């Protein structure tokens, strides 16, 4: 899907920019960026369609604000190495990480993500950095007058398009599903959701059928890579096994029974005292700028066991100059949790953990005023209030939502069955 790129920086000289300026504006409309040796997107133009900004009229004069460098992350890269090669001081990187403390987006960079650097006249000071995770998700860090950076998230809603993938079992489920156009990741989601209902290696026979409703995000006709499974129907000898995504982000079977293991609310074995609440609009007491608090803090003494709030896989173990020793757990599909400022980490990357399992000892690593657990819950990559979010705690769709749920089940079934009898 992705083209391999040589490990080089694309440096754009000032004279080149002048020459390329005009043609880039027109190129942006139609050219498939993937085929460009240097991927350049005139940001001012794409920003004008972003929802975070008030609707603006087409600019009468287009200002080209091209980055000085663009770099596609390769596996094994480290950011400090990239900064060193570009001659940008390490102190700038530290300031970026400080701005990133409440988001930790820099730590989520992976191969094929794109970095764009804007530097000042001397070419040595970073004025703006953009991380492009995909065409619908970017983050920008902009230099402020006081020398710190401010983070801005750019989310393009795009269009989500539903499709149904359907097929017959012929060989394994995985092979049959891939043949019907489902991805490796889709197969993972399906088998993990239905693992208690069906034994995928034994229960399916040739001639059994399956249908899956997928939604995929498109931006200007291009897939962003973001997708989700919304409905699953596997017909084992005519008896359907089903899963449906409800508006709360959780999956249920056709009777509204939850298919995901429950979460617990607190990242410790008891209900601790909250010392700082989730507050995405928190103002910094000195600068007055918005400095979101994307988690809930629990005041606990150093050495208190920190437990995973749900079943999942440890996807990250890091030591961050400001967030300290922290862990990220992926709970499948939509939820991730983060646990910051630990004194000791007891799990390793790739390890499977269960709800209530001890994963760390609390502490005061990173920049903190006292020992505490900073706990975050991310839903589809966005921080939500971990004390209030709808997480799979109940075992079924709440009664008040049952009518709506049944309606969407009927709609999904109609889509899937229509595909089956084609
Ligand atoms: Zn905190």
Overview of this protein structure:
This protein is α+β, with helices and mostly antiparallel strands and 422 residues long. The chain folds into three domains: 10-155, Nuclear Transport Factor 2, Chain: A, CATH 3.10.450; 159-260 and 395-420, Nuclear Transport Factor 2, Chain: A (Roll); 274-384, Distorted Sandwich (Glucose Permease (Domain IIA)), CATH 2.70.70.10. Helix content is 18%, strand content 32%. The protein has seven helices and 22 strands. It has helices at 14-30, 43-47, 79-86, 90-99, 173-179, 184-193, 402-420; strands at 10-11, 69-72, 114-119, 126-134, 137-143, 149-155, 159-168, 209-219, 222-236, 239-245, 251-252, 274-276, 296-299, 305-307, 312-320, 324-330, 335-342, 344-345, 352-353, 358-361, 372-379, 382-384. The strands form four sheets. Strands 12, 13, 15, 16, 17, 19, 21 and 22 form an eight-stranded antiparallel sheet that branches. The longest helix is centred in the last third of the chain and has 19 residues, at 402-420. The chain is globular and about 70 Å long. The site of zinc ion has 5 residues, from loops. Its main location: other. It holds the Pfam family Peptidase_M23. It is found in: Cell envelope.
